[in-house]
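Batch manifest line 476
LIGAND: NAI
JOB: complex structure
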Amino acid sequence: MTEQSYDVAVIGGGPAGYPAAIRAAQNGLRVVCVDEWCNPDGSRAFGGTCLNAGCIPSKALLESSELYHRAASEFKFHGIGVGDLSVDIGKMQSRKEKIVKQLTRGIEALFKSNSVTGVRGHGRLLGGGRVEVTDPDGNVSELSAEHVVIATGSTPVELPVAPFDGEHIVDSWGALEFDSVPERLGVVGAGAVGLELGSVWQRLGAKVVVLEALEDFLCMADEQIAKDALRHFKRQGLDIRLGANVQSATVTDSAVEVKFRQGAEEQRLEVDKLIVCVGRRPFTAELLADGVGVELDDRGFVQVDEQCRTTAPGVWAVGDVVRGPMLAHKGTEEGIMAADLIAGKVAEVNYDAIPSVIYTAPEIAWVGKTEAELKSNGIDYKVGTFPFAANGRAKGMEQTAGLVKLLCAEEDDELLGVHIVGPVAGELIAEAVLAMEFCASGEDLQRTIHAHPTLTEAIHEASLAADNRAIHAINH
Ligand code: NAI
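JOB STATUS: finished
ARTIFACT:
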């Protein structure tokens, strides 16, 4: 058995692991990144869930389905007739595959140019800086490193009452692979995955029913924003049932029979496909040999400190496999932080300024505290809101749904949270993240010149509204 030695071994090549590997190499360290990902076509690729089966392919399909939907329902407002619209799911899927391939190959190119060694296989931490690698053919080898970064990500939670069969009852990856539009689609869980994938297939013509166990819709978002979003989704035809507890899902010859309870009532739903997206759990299967000293918490997350050090010396963990939101960009920043700390540099992640985005139409995005969080923390605050219906650019785009809501401290005007439901909210939120990163006040935003006509003016106006000084709205 030959053993290679490195300064840093990264286990997992997703959006937390591959940037950690690249940054460590940029810091002059000898780096190996081990990943076992295998695509359905048998190809192996770095990039993890995000690039292969999550963020990137879902955004490709969201864009395609959004264009189709707008052509069908909005072009007429612009005076554009399109005749008979049709959709070719095969072509749509190949475009998606092409994007995934380009980006995953891009990582290999980045590894090459940064002299990161990419190894295909399953990594298992043996302790003492040794990592066992089992390649796709079952051959076992060992490598060693001064530092090991665990970046093994997460995997979909399976509901025992609705087990995945890969064909009728599928997880988020399966829901990106449909080769035709299901006539009737059931979605269990109204989180980010459920809403995004439900939207994709609904826009393409599926009749979609979303079953959500909680009584409140999108409870991680600000309540006012969530309520507004729910109104738009319902108007689009998404049938969202709150307080719906799935009891069973049974695959029959041609359909899935779902039984669920809403209040005291037992209900039944028949669908052609069922997407179960009720969260993800940290992925640590076959990762840690006995006695390596890396502790997991009671939910299976690798325990880390604020700077992603695990309980074992020289072992770090970043991304979905550790506490905090399961977001690619959070993992990326943690990976980069770990790589810089390993190289003896100063680094930190500002966990208070991590943006969240849900890529529906309208999009939902936020950063910082919600109104409910400020209330429960006893912080006095000011609120400014501004609707996209009063924004000239939004009107020109025929995208007037939604609003910007901004929360500032009553005491010193510090910007505490920005919440947006509206067109390209995921892009707009960047301004708020930057403002919060620099501890801006509401007044700083008010005094910042925003180009006209742009959607960003809605953020400007919301900051003015917090002091009852909005120009294009009635102040209270
Ligand atoms: P999630 O945790 O965001 O939402 C799951 C939903 O399922 C929750 O609302 C929960 O109340 C509901 N639920 C749980 N058990 C249920 C049951 N038995 N019956 C009905 N409803 C039930 O999880 P999701 O959407 O699967 O996403 C997984 C992770 O991936 C999340 O951490 C999410 O933030 C991340 N993600 C982020 C995206 C983004 O940033 N745009 C896109 C996709 C995923």
